[in-house]
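Researcher: Checking consistency across runs. Here is Hydroxymethylpyrimidine/phosphomethylpyrimidine kinase again:
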Amino acid sequence: MKTALTIAGSDSGGGAGIQADLKAFAANGVFGMSVITAVTAQNTQEVRSVQNIDPAIIRDQIEAVFDDLPVDAVKIGMLSSADIVRTVAEALKKYSPELVVLDPVMVSKGGHHLLEQDAIQALKEQIIPIASIVTPNIPEAEVLTGKRILTQEDMKEACITIKTLGCRTVLLKGGHFDGPPHDLFFDGEEFHWIEGERIITKNTHGTGCTLSSAIAANLAKGASMLEAVKQAKQFITIAILHSLSLGHGHGPTNHFYELYQKANLKNSRY
Ligand SMILES: Nc1ncnc2c1ncn2[C@@H]1O[C@H](COP(=O)(O)OP(=O)(O)OP(=O)(O)O)[C@@H](O)[C@H]1O
Ligand SMILES: Cc1ncc(COP(=O)(O)O)c(N)n1
């Protein structure tokens, strides 16, 4: 069985972070492993508090996994502080994983900062260059490039700028624009629009986490980068379409809808 490792924060509400990543790995048929960078007290409405994990323990988790287990792909999510960014970068350089998906998580849906301001430069200098793909949403791409993104032409320019930071490819997600959520993939030579249709729902907690983890799972299974992205877009679209109205805020997406359909368990409560 192929494997994927997520390096991210824990979401007690289960819709984003490590919990979403492991569910997306399972739903996409790879064995999931985790390195926890921070613990958030979180639900569908808000992030109440954050406890960063001691960088030494983060390094130990990464070493414990790589020293023993095969890692076919890595997904990186919430890194929280500059110290954690540096620790993860150093530890990953030791093992040089081939396939690294970076979701540059900065702010939660409810507006809570999940990456400290002084960590952004470290992320740009130390993590982006080791990424096979970086998957910012529009606000994150604006922070990374220092430019407003208002049009599809701006999205193209942002992809080019982010690529110059040293990653192999970029997927700029269009979910934060009004209108259809078209994402833009750039491999340094060609642009590909990964088109979507907007689903009207408030249950979009953890969409970025789920998408990036599905990309990592597809890469682990041997897909090309573009194919991994296209399949992951289909997966997140179905997960949003059948999202779960749990909690009082932004509910989680449904990672297992497709699996239940395939298993013909149509009467399941999903
Ligand atoms: N309402 C929607 N309907 C269909 N697709 C959507 C919708 N909202 C987001 N998407 C898609 O979901 C994926 C994740 O995009 P989004 O821009 O929401 O990421 P994000 O802001 O990083 O997510 P999060 O921070 O919630 O984890 C993208 O492919 C985007 O186009
Ligand atoms: C631990 C963790 N990681 C990532 C997110 C981003 O997800 P969202 O933007 O949907 O709040 C989050 N809320 N919590």
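Researcher: Does this match what you'd expect to see?
Model: One thing to look at in this run: The longest helix spans residues 225-241.
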